[in-house]
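QA checklist item 7 of 12: single-chain prediction sanity check.
[x] sequence parsed
[x] length recorded as 498
[x] structure emitted
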Amino acid sequence: MNSPVKALIKQLISFDKKSIQPLYIQAAQQIINAIQRGYLEKGSKLPGTRILSKILDVHRNTAVAIYDELASQGWVDIVANKGTFVLIPDERTLKIKVSGQSVNDAYHYPKVSGFPFQSSFNLASTSDNSASKYIINDGKPDLRLHPTHQFSRWYAAAMKRKSLINKWNKSSVSSASVFKTQLCNYLNATRGFKISSKNTINTRSAEMSLYIVSQLLIEPKDVVLVGELSNYASNKIFQQAGATLKTIPIDNEGLDIDYIKTHFVKKSIRCVYVNPNRNYPTTVTLSAKRRLQLLQLAKDYGFAIIEDDFDYDFQYHGSAMLPIASADASGMVIYLGKLGQSLFPSFHTGFIVAPENFILEAKNYLQLLDQQGDLIQEQMLSELISEGEIYRLKKKNSIIYKRRRDCTSHFLEQYFGGIIKWKMPSGGLAIWLQFEEPISLIRLAEEAEKLEVYLPKIILYQNKSTCAIRFGFGHLNEDEIEVVIKKLKQAYKLVLNL
């Protein structure tokens, strides 16, 4: 008659042959779980390796590996000529026995919570999946342009700095870090600022920066003004904070400031969110005249300006217009940006520039969200800034992206001349494509996907007055750009049944 332990192991252990995890690890983890739950008690003798291999229908070497793995973690004691016995590494661990269900039920975590919680429609994911060969985005860099080996050396060198240990061991930092100093120097040199470390904090991402700002600035039902066609990601953050979004028309000079004057009264607006360098999604630049008008209106009406300069780095003609924040003498502007867009995404860092008292409060929120930060990343970025490597990579990649922008325009003219209109953006990694005659963009996306080109919903803009696509070209090389635009033309013909 089989012993209870043999019967339990036979019932307990099952293998997932599709898993990349080795069989001996799968078995060991399930035995550990059984010990933790009290199904296998301390001192229980486990079957010998020959018997275990027969029970589980595995090679004896696999059975030996299972017990070796358990022994290495302190869950069993292998006694020569006596057998393998269950141990409990931590006697304080509470044994949990589940009554009324089979042993294997413990390995299927529940899909639905047994308690109520607050769900959020605003935070529903907008990401889609596709197996298409070509996936168009809203303007992301090309990871293939990044010098992999160089990044490895930079990161390894940063990890070896002895100063990092001291930074990790410090409970608080009274003086400005080297990275903060370098970041301020970089922003002062490239954006016309006159800031110190007291005017800025760095975050994990531009989205984290905006989240912190929205938590500090917005209370439920506060009015936030955004462009008529605006950034879906920032809108989600504002709505989650409880804001009431109001849209402002966009024309060839950017946000219509006169519309704000005629449709809103003083103290009725909490803040205005703007992408002055290149409006998202239309890529229109806010004119110098309107920047000054917006700054003056903010002072007169008492609202804050959130200036999101997400793609300031990629400028192809002349110099980018300086930020609104560089002309702000009254503390009305909160400036958001991103450093390192010519680096791998994991090395990007967001930052906030604002008056000192606002930054002090923002630091309190940052402590809750990300107390430790990424000291290795900061060390590496400090060195890349001081050595001029950030600037060199930016210039090098900008030349490549400019060629891709021009190439995109060339093939659009070749395949969509008279069908689509667009204006060459002065920078950035996307072009705003407007159809002369409206079509169903959803149908276009469906036909394009059949041709291995995926157009996610977030880049499609269609209503009564708009039929447009925010076409990101930065991640495609010149050959891929032609293939994609040619396939889009084929999809367009299928939509029109040509």
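[x] summary fact logged: Residues 389-416 form the longest helix (28 residues).
[ ] second reviewer sign-off
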